[in-house]
Structure formats: structure tokens, C-alpha cells
Amino acid sequence: MKIRNWPIFIFVVLYHIAIIALIPTAIAVFSWGAFWFFLVTYIIGGISITAGYHRLFSHKAYNANPFYEWSILITSLLAFEMSALKWCFDHRLHHNHVDTDEDPYSIDKGFWYAHILWLFDYERKFDPSLVPDLMRNPRVMFQDKYYIPLAIIVNALLIGAACFFMDPMAAFFYGFLLRMAMVHHCTWFINSLCHTFGSKTYSRELSAVDNAALALLTFGEGYHNYHHAFAADYRNGIRWYHFDPTKWLIWVCSKFGFTKNLRSVNSVVLLKSLVLKDRKIILERLSHEVDEIASEWRHKIETLSSHFEETSLNLNNKIRELKNVSDAQKAHLELEIKQLKKNLNKTWNEWIQLTQVTTKKFKLAHAH
Fold first, then answer.
1. What is the pLDDT of residues 148-200, one digit of tens each?
2. Which of 12, 218, 233, 330 has the fewest Cβ atoms nearer than 10 Å?
3. What angle do CA 81, 84, 86 make, to 5 degrees?
């Protein structure tokens, strides 16, 4: 790999060397105040990237008022991950060309390339047509124009204030170096680990995976397979038990008027679109096979997908009916909806098993 981005390379290498060199000193000056300083700044810096750079500015998954946007653009300076404009440009490029040579951090170029090496190799060919909405946002453009001085001022003021409560070296090491490294590597893990280790529940044709463990470190971003399937959803974790504090923050802010127009995918629509997508991919793969076994699998795929589509359509119709029926009819209709949901979930589970077996058979057949 040829290093093309020397400023980024020098910066990343130097701060990692500084962390390693200062470990003995950091141990000597450690205090619980320094730990909490690290944790709070890590959370603020990290969640400003997930809620702001990622879900608000990159994917327009919701709208926000100017105060919220300013808050994101200022607190994101703790992450030291370049301006929102440049970050979002790279990320939209990633989604437009995922798993191809035009993907800035394609996992096809290797785990470590996707994790960090891409930063040193990448030459950004900025195209305003990819981020026209951000180019019209005066707050985003102000942050982009003055990013370096703003980042230095905000971090210097924060560390300076912390020196009144702890050893200056502790404030610098835990509140800047370690915090910045933690935010960086957790963000980069989305590009590497979340395209390598995990489950593909929603979009099996892409490399992105769901990794619940990484969601704990990245404020919900670990549910990456879902995100690539439905990037415009303000949620990454869609189940009640999914750890996604970013979606909770966005939702709470909507109750106070800071955010609005939260975009989310209806669960039935979500599952239906996934079935149709899987069906198309698998049938395309099976089209190259002409034996009786392939014909049998095609029949299974088409039959189960049609049944799922019919059930989901019936369920949506019943849900719409529920709004216009009398109280006497409502109880009976609610029972029908409950049964349809149960049938739909059963069919979905059958679909998951069928597609997994089909995909496995296809891979094995072509491996030989």
C-alpha cells in the first residue's frame, strides 16, 4: 500500500506512539476523576458522531433545529474525525459503492485496510453533487471551514478546565489521547468488524453484519446489517432489547422539539422488502442450475415468498380496517390481526431457514 495521505498518517502514528510512551505516567497519575473525564468525553464525542454525522447529516434519517445541529457540530469536535461535510461525503460514497473498488473503506481490500489503512491510502475527490444538502447548510459549512482551529480550541479549553480538578497529565492523557483513540477505533471497527463478524439477518448479499457486542461500544451502530438494508431509518437497533442509545436520544429530543420527522421502516414493510430482495437474489443464483433439485428449490422459494407476501398484504389491510370499525367489531378484528402477525412471524422464520440452507447449498456447489 502506498501512503498518499501523509498528514493523517503522521497524526495517527504520533498519537498512538504518545499513548504507548505515556502509559507508565498515566498509571502514576490515574484517578477516578480522570476515568470519569475520559468516559463522559468519550460518550459525548462518540454519540455526536452516531446521532449527528451518521444518522442526521449522512442519511437524513430525521430533521433537527439549528440549536441541535450546533450542539452536534461542536461536541463532535471531541471525536477529532474531520468535519461533518467530509465525513458524510466519505460515508455516502461508502453506501453508494459498498464492497466495490470505489468504496473508500471496502472490506474486500482486507480487514486492516477497512479499519485504518484506508485513511493513509485515500485521496478524496470531493464531488459537491454528493452532498448538496450539506453544502446549503451554513452551520455545516462553517464547521468545515474552521474545523482545525475549532477542534483545537474546544479540546484545549476542556482539558484546561479539567486541570483544576486533576493532574494536568491525567487530563491530557485520559481526556484527550485515550478518549480520541477510543472513539476512533470504535468508529473504525464499524468499517472492519461490522463487515466481518456477526449475523446477516436483513441483507445477506452485503458484507455488513449485525454485531451486538460492538453496539455496546458504538452507541447502537453495531446493528450494521440492518443499517445497510435500511440506511434512512433513524434506528439501527429495531428490537426493544437492542442497545441503541442513539435512537433513544433522537426520540427523546423529538419530544422537546429539537428533532422531528423521525424516519422508520414499518416492520411488516421491512420484512416484506427483505423477502422480495432475498427471493430475487436466490432465484438469480438458481437460474444457472438446471437439475431437478434446483427446480425443487425454486418452487419452495416462490411458494413461501408468495405466501409471505399474501399474509403481509392481508395484515396491512386488516390494520387499515381497524381504524374505521365500530367498537363491537374491533375485538374480533384485533384477534384476526394477532393471528395474522403470528402467522407472519412463523413464515418469516421458515423463510430465514430456507434462505440460509439455499445459500449454503449454492456456495458449496460452486466451491466444487
1. 999 999 999 999 999 999 999 999 999 999 999 999 999 999 999 999 999 88
2. 330
3. 80
Query: What grid cell was written down for 157?
Result: 479549553
Give all strands (DSSP E) within 148-285, no chain letters.
259-260
Whether residue 334 contacts residue 325, with contact meaning beta carbons closer than 8 Å, is answered with no
**Residue 1 resides in a domain:** no
Q: How many residues does the chain have?
A: 368
> Residues 233, 159: one domain?
yes
Contacts of 53 by beta carbon, 8 Å cutoff, 6+ apart: 72, 76, 81, 84, 87, 88, 91
The domain total for the chain is 2
Q: Give the C-alpha separation, 133 to 88, whole Å.
A: 11
Residue 42 neighbours by CB under 8 Å, 6+ apart: 179, 182, 183
199 backbone dihedrals φ, ψ, rounded to 5°: -110, 150
Instruction: Look up residue 293 and give its amino acid.
Output: I
> 322 and 197, same structural domain?
no
pLDDT in tens, 201-243: 777 778 999 999 999 999 999 999 999 988 999 999 988 899 9
Domain range holding 171? 6-260
Residue 131 DSSP code: S
CA diameter of the chain: 77
Residues 57/73, Cβ–Cβ less than 8 Å: no
Q: How far is CA 148 from CA 73, 81, 82, 145, in A?
A: 13, 11, 8, 8
What's the N-to-C CA distance of the chain in angstroms? Answer: 33
User: What integer pLDDT is reported at residue 291 of this predicted model?
Assistant: 67
**Closest-CA residue to 65 (of 338, 258, 323):** 258
Nearest to 346 by CA among 314, 304, 290: 304
C-alpha cell recorded at residue 281: 437474489
Pick the last residue of a domain from 260, 290, 321.
Answer: 260
| pLDDT < 50: residue spans in the chain | 364-368
- Rounded to whole angstroms, the Cα distance separating 344 from 268 reads 9
Are 146 and 295 in a shared domain? no
C-alpha distance from residue 129 to each of 92, 93, 133, 144, 162 (Å): 11, 11, 9, 17, 42
Check: CB of residue 106 under 8 Å from CB of residue 100.
yes
Helix 327-367 and helix 267-286, axial crossing angle in degrees, nearest 10: 30
